[in-house]
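User: I'll paste a sequence; please echo it back and then give the predicted structure.

Assistant: Echoing your sequence first, then the prediction.
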Amino acid sequence: VQLVESGGGLVQPGGSLRLSCAASGFTFSSYDMSWYRQAPGKERELVADISSVGGTNYADSMKGRFNISRDNAKNTVYLQMNSLKTEDTAVYYCNAKHRWYDFWGQGTQVIVSS
């Protein structure tokens, strides 16, 4: 099982990034997929999730700025992040859940700074 995040980097406030998480080793379409983030000195928090049937949910501070989507044909989940703020700086992690299975990626760093 692998979840490989990509797309992180350094961006100025107000900018955009699109994160990708490529999955392998399990039946991607059956899993609920989520993005979490962890800022320095803070606990990991949910950013957004998308169910196996496409229903989405966002943390309040991300609503209207972030968009989660999935492509089951490519076994990939995306996180489009717009209007980025300095407080969005964190390591972003991909998560896959189905029944008692719970998989995590290694994370990708996002730094929002001028």
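The chain has no helices and eleven strands. Residues 96 and 102 are 6 Å apart (CA to CA).
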